[in-house]
């Protein structure tokens, strides 16, 4: 399914990943409490995960990149609640998007006796030494949502179908602009995330495999000329960096009243930066904007007509699946996977479980986000 454009993006991001620098923040984020709502739902779901507590509890290390993005707080809280409900002790750590902090946290988890590690990395290529320590100690490792690269210590990978995320964003834009029937041209700008995050390869590649034919035909025009992965990447998925870049694009290409019809944003934090820039300096017809994660601020913008869609990845589903994987491995078995072809981390294909993302719009957000219990109505007011 990975076509020529995707392969080009993959090669590009591998080069960028080698050059990516470490984060500068020195703040260490320690264990975050599980949210009450997540814990309540998780307890019921995790009852099926196994009987890990029999014969004494087992310590599982969970390393998350940062508290700065809403989704990682939810991932960490859901994971901790479900693992504890299944009978495990949990060492949950956040690393303030600082690579060296995460390296130290994972090393401490190993030295403190964690029997299994679940790691959502800041930079997928930065954890070589602690992963080698884990392998030497016989500690299985599940790579969580972001693929750990260039290490044969990775046992499994659990994520959403990230190529499908990009496809859904691209397909939404095709339909919203009616590109099959309209001649255009329509102006579009492109934003993706951190070059050290392997998921960006899939998000951007999936979207561009859909959109590139329309760019080639002239129906879609990128007036800024910024179309390569290197040009559209946003370090650390940072909203302010996305806003600054969008401000510059508006000033150079759309300040004369030229209409910007659409902005492809790979996730909600980049979309939020784009939306902030549009609010401050764009006076034309409002564009169609994509996103991912259904962050609260972005869902509010969706309701207000400032964002057209967001791809919903229910982190409760992913957490539940990872708990099942942890439980299977801890009991001496093999974890369930559904993809053994797509995810090569540089040492070989990593057995993967993919959860399916869904598109959320103004038409279905109540059903998907409120009725499902992911948010309360008050949170979205």
UniProtKB/TrEMBL annotation:
Top-level taxonomic group: Bacteria
Single annotated GO MF: carbohydrate binding
InterPro entries the record matches: Bact_Solute-Bind_Prot2 (IPR050555), ChvE-like (IPR049784), Peripla_BP_I (IPR028082), SBP_2_dom (IPR025997)
Cellular compartment(s): Cell envelope
Signal is among the record's keywords: yes
Domain Periplasmic binding protein: 60-333
Region (Disordered): 22-50
Primary residence: other
Assigned GO CC terms: outer membrane-bounded periplasmic space
Signal peptide location: 1-19
Gene3D superfamilies: 3.40.50.2300
Keywords of this entry: Signal
PROSITE patterns: PROKAR_LIPOPROTEIN
Low complexity: bias regions: 23-50
NCBIfam families per record: ChvE
Family matches, as PANTHER family: D-XYLOSE-BINDING PERIPLASMIC PROTEIN (PTHR30036)
Name of the featured protein: Sugar-binding protein
Classification lineage: Bacteria, Bacillati, Bacillota, Clostridia, Lachnospirales
């Amino acid at each position: 399914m990975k076509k020529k454009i995707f392969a080009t993006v993959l090669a590009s991001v591998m080069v960028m990943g080698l050059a990516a620098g470490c984060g500068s923040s020195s703040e260490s984020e320690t264990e975050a409490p599980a949210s009450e709502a997540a814990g309540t739902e998780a307890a019921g779901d995790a009852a099926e995960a196994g009987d890990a507590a029999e014969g004494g509890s087992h310590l599982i290390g969970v390393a998350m990149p940062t508290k700065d993005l809403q989704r990682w707080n939810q991932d960490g809280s859901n994971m901790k609640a479900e693992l504890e409900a299944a009978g495990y002790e949990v060492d949950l750590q956040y690393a303030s998007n600082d690579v060296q902090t995460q390296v130290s946290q994972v090393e401490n988890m190993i030295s403190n006796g964690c029997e299994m590690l679940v790691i959502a990395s800041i930079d997928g290529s930065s954890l070589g030494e602690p992963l080698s320590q884990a392998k030497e100690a016989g500690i299985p490792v599940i790579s969580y949502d972001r693929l750990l690269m260039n290490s044969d210590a990775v046992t499994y990978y659990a994520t959403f179908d990230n190529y499908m995320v990009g496809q859904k964003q691209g397909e939404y834009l095709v339909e919203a602009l009616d590109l099959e029937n309209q001649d255009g041209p329509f102006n579009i700008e492109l934003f993706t995330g951190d070059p050290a995050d392997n998921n960006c390869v899939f998000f951007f590649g999936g979207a561009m495999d859909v959109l590139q034919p329309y760019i080639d035909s002239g129906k879609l025009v990128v007036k800024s000329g910024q179309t390569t992965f290197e040009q559209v990447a946003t370090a650390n998925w940072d909203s302010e960096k996305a806003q600054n870049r969008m401000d510059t694009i508006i000033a150079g290409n759309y300040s004369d009243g030229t209409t910007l019809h659409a902005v492809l944003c790979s996730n909600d934090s980049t979309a939020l930066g784009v939306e902030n820039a549009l609010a401050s300096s764009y006076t034309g017809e409002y564009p169609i904007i994509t996103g991912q994660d259904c962050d609260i601020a972005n869902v509010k913008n969706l309701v207000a007509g400032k964002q057209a869609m967001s791809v919903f990845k229910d982190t409760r589903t992913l957490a539940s699946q990872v708990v099942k994987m942890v439980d299977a491995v801890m009991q001496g078995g093999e974890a369930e996977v559904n993809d053994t072809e797509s995810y090569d981390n540089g040492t070989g294909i990593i057995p993967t479980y993919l959860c399916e993302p869904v598109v959320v719009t103004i038409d279905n957000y109540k059903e998907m986000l409120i009725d499902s219990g992911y948010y309360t109505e008050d949170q979205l007011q």
